[in-house]
Structures are given as C-alpha cells and as structure tokens.
Amino acid sequence: MTSDRSAGLAESARALADGEVTSRSLVEAALARIEATQTSLNAFRIVRTEAALAEAEAADRELAAGVRKPLLGVPVAVKDDMDVAGEPTAFGCRGEFPPVAKDGEAVRRLRAAGAVIVGKTNTCEFGQWPFTEGPAFGATRNPWSTEHTPGGSSGGSAAAVAAGLVPAALGSDGAGSVRIPASWTHLIGIKPQRGRISTWPRGESFQGITVNGTLARTVADAALLLDAAAGNHDLDPHRPPAVDALQATRRDPGRLRIALSLKPPFTALPARLQPEVRARVVQLAEELSDLGHIVEEADPPYGQIGLTFVPRATAGLAERVREAPFPTLLDRRTRDAARLGGLLGGVPLRAARRAEAVLHRRIGTFFTTYDVILAPTTAAPPPRIGALLGLGGLATDRAMIAACPYAWPWNVLGWPGVNVPAGFVGGGLPVGAQLLGPANSEPLLISLAAQLEARLRWHTAWPPEHAVTDSPAA
Asked: Which residue intervals define the domain Amidase in the entry (predicted)?
C-alpha cells in the first residue's frame, strides 16, 4: 500500500496492522497534503504537525509490539468545535483562544481506538450556516470547484476528506451540518442518533439539536469511524443502545418500503427544489427500485415542525455567545440571533422541547408504512464563495432556507440520517440525497447506503487534481 490520497480509513488500518506501512509515513503524507492545499482549500484551522508525528511514532511502537486497535496509527481530523487537549477550540470565531486541558469524549474515544488527530478543521462561526467562511480564517473551498463552498458548517472536514487529505473526519450536525457538506463534496455523511457520539463536555449541544457525525468517501469508512467515536460519558443525558455500524455495511438490507419525499418541510420562507437536483434524486430512487425496493412518493407529516426548531437553535446559540471570550468580535448576525434566543429561551423553549415527543409519535407513525425516507439533502448545488458571507440576517436566512430546507427536521427529532452522493449537476458540482429513518435506525440506513454504493461505485470519482492544488484566483 502507498500513502497517497486514495487510501481509505479501513484500508489504512489494515495496512498498518499488516506491517505494509508505518503510521509515521501515513501521517507525514497527510501533513504534506494539508500543507500543499492550505492556500487552495484552507480546510484546517489547526494543524498538529509535531504532536501528530509524535503520536504516529508512539503508534508505530505499539504496532511493532503486537498491539491491535481499530484505528491504530491512522490519521484523521476533527472539526474545530471539538476539544483536543492542548489545542484551542475557537469554533469558527475570531480571537486568541486558550488551549483546553482535556479531550472531549468523542476525541478521547478516537484516541482510544488508536487514531492520530492531525488537525482541527474549519467551521463557520458557531456552526450556524451552510458555508465555511469568516474573518477568523478566510474561506474554505470545495475540492470539486474552488470557486464554490464545500458547505457548512462541517465544511473543513468535508473538504479535507473529499480532497484526500485525510481518509475520514468528524463533523457535527445541528441543521444538516454533516449532511449538507457531504452532499456538496460527494461524500458519505452520517448524522447518527442523538447521543450515539457524545458531545461531552456538553451533555447536549444547542439544546439537543446538534450531534457529532462522520464524513468519509465510503460507507464502510464512515461506519468504522462512527464505531470508533461512538459511546457515552458517564454524565451524558442521551444514551442510545449500541449498534455495530461496520457490520451493517456487510448486511443485505432486505426488500424495503421507501418513501420518496421531495416536498420541503414547513419553512417560514419560500424554498423550491431545483429541477437538476430533483432529477438526480429521482434517478437515485429509480436505482433503489431496480434493486428491488418498493419506492413511492410520500411526505412525512411534518406539520409546523419549524416552530420547534427556532427556539432550540437560537437559545443554544445564546448559550454559546454568553460564553464567548470576545463577544464584540462576533458576526452581527450571530449577536442578533443570540438576542432572539434570549427572548425564546423561556416558555417558547420549554414548549419546543415538550413538542418533540408529540413529533416522535406523529412522524413515527409514518414508519409503520415505510421503512426509510429518501429525500434531497439540499434544494440546490453549492453556492459560490462569498455569496452568503456579506448578507444581513434576514437575507442570510432566506438564502440558507432556499438552498437547504430539507435536513433540519431530523435534528429536532434526534433520529439518524445518511447523506449519499446523488451525482453531479451543471459544471460538475456534487449534490446528495438523504436516507432518513426512525430512532436508532443507523444499521438499516447504513446497509441500504452500502447496497447503493456497491451498485453505483460513487467513491471511484475524485475531484480534479488542479482544483485541489492550485491557489484560487484573487
């Protein structure tokens, strides 16, 4: 095995265990790719060069001693909303942040599995928007077209994986922030059940709507990273029963009843599915039908689910803003949304939290008729860099809802969803589709995604080398 960008997570772990390659060589190659693309892609906020090389050498000593762990010596990245001991956690914000003392639980579990954390990836300010840009770090760009965003808020992780800088990365998803960048960079993005991957040192992130998830080029790699990061801190409030995600990739999903849902859920602002994206999702539905599944057009009974999302999202943001060490440096849109969160943080927030059980029952009945929902991940392909950065608050909300109206309901519900690549639209821009299920349905969704992957082999497509390595025009 070589240490080029095509080596996946599972393949890297196997080659390390078999002695075909060293951790140091893999980590050195990853660091070299990161350095070579930082001017063109800008995927990383922090690169842990010295620490990662030291950890790689320690992994090599363990491997030589016969130690075996699922990811021993494999380089991975995490989003910069996750605590890595000795590094700051800026979460897309401007200012100098102190290093944290301890790993967050998800990072601790990755290290326990043997992974080497090569760096922390860029994210927009407090993960609010489906683009990864800001004055703190500039613009993170899409490997498929550096004139376009990779999405957000886990855009740095998506760009890093899509370009082959690392074989897989952790992101977080509060309104589609794993699934949206996965769709716009031709990746698998797993948003797991709430609590599957701990968000500790926060028992809940953004009032429970945000969860940690995985990004990878293949279903098996995304599942392997999920298994490695999954688990709970003793004080976590949400503790779902364990699943074996990697085993699910080897399982036939059986003949499923699949609802093709193309109608955007309730939004206060207009949203329309662009015809070229619709065509790619419908084509995916036809592939599922050819695989023997029963596919029918049907929409879940969402009702006015959006009324429960806004209080949780804005109250959660208000909590982060209150903790921010440099509040005057925050984007005006952040401060305005946090003020709204302060107003909604009492009775409206409590009502929104209570409504979740009602929504579980109502939307849960849909899964007595259907096993899985297939829906667009976004309504549009990725926007150009800068298209949303300078907008005011309402204009940003309009643009965000127009492009991304489909992902957020599953954050309110706390249930799993998996983005799968749906192909390319004008100019070679990737788009994706979501497989959505009820509580704790990751094994079913992952097995279905793996079946599609075996048929469509989307992981064989790579961004053009010149787009990854050339600096964008000023």
From this structure: 26-445
Crossing angle between the packed helical segments 105-112 and 219-229, to the nearest 10 degrees: 110
- Tokens 């390659």, residue located: 21
CA distance 74 to 340: 43
> How many residues make up the chain in this entry?
474
| Cβ atoms within 10 Å of 101's Cβ, excluding its own | 8
Please give the structure tokens belonging to residue 258: 């699949």
Active-site amino acid positions? 79, 153, 177
Identify whether the C-beta of residue 242 lies closer than 8 Å to the C-beta of residue 280: no
207 φψ region: left (φ > 0), alpha (ψ -120 to 50), beta (else): left
> Are the C-beta atoms of 321 and 335 separated by less than 8 Å?
yes
Q: What is the CA radius of gyration of the chain?
A: 20
Amino acid identity of residue 143, one-letter, is: P
Q: What whole-number distance in Å separates Cα of residue 306 and Cα of residue 56? A: 46
Q: Which structure tokens are listed for 194? A: 């709430």
Angle (CA) 415 169 474, round 5°: 115
Structure tokens at 467: 């787009």
- Taking the C-alpha atoms of residue 60 and residue 64, their distance in angstroms, rounded to an integer, is 6
Encode pLDDT of 357-414 as tens digits: 999 999 999 999 999 999 999 999 999 999 999 999 999 999 999 999 999 999 999 9
Q: Which of 6, 376, 360 is nearest to 179 (CA)?
A: 376
The pLDDT of residue 268 is: 72
Angle at alpha carbon of residue 393, lines to 388 and 395, rounded to 5°: 55
